Amino acid sequence: MKRALFCGVMAAVLAIFFAAAPASAEAVMRDSSCTAVNGSNSMTYDCNYHVSNYVVGTPLTFAMTYSCTGACGPVMSFGLRGKGFVPAGVSGHLVGGKRLPNGIELTFVFDSLKSMGNQKTGTAQFNMNVNMDDGSGSMSAVPCKVDVHLKQ
Questions:
Q1: How many degrees, rounded to 5, is the angle at CA 75 between CA 101 and CA 31?
Q2: Which CATH architecture has domain 25-151?
């Protein structure tokens, strides 16, 4: 009897725990790809993302990848573009990143968002520079703009 009661209580506690944890935590989803051209070589890369179910101050990690018709890679540098976070009133910071075989993985945080009515919005703007062949063997860093949009 005690064992059945204990198992019933534990099942109730576990059910409450899993119900309290959201089924879909914050996620960064790729919306679209862009193309950069250097001479006769072209590169397709992940460039627009959106964030859902975000809690301000929580680190977001996502991967940007690319593929080329000719020779390209590696990622030469990566950082914030322009003001970094827009519109005015939105702020954030980079936490870390690492190179991937054909891209980069990045972690950043929105520190504050802009309120627009009963919604909050913000965009993080990044620049990924990828070494890319122009088709004649001359390599140069090509800037690739990457934006992460949040609207909730």
A1: 80
A2: Sandwich (2.60)
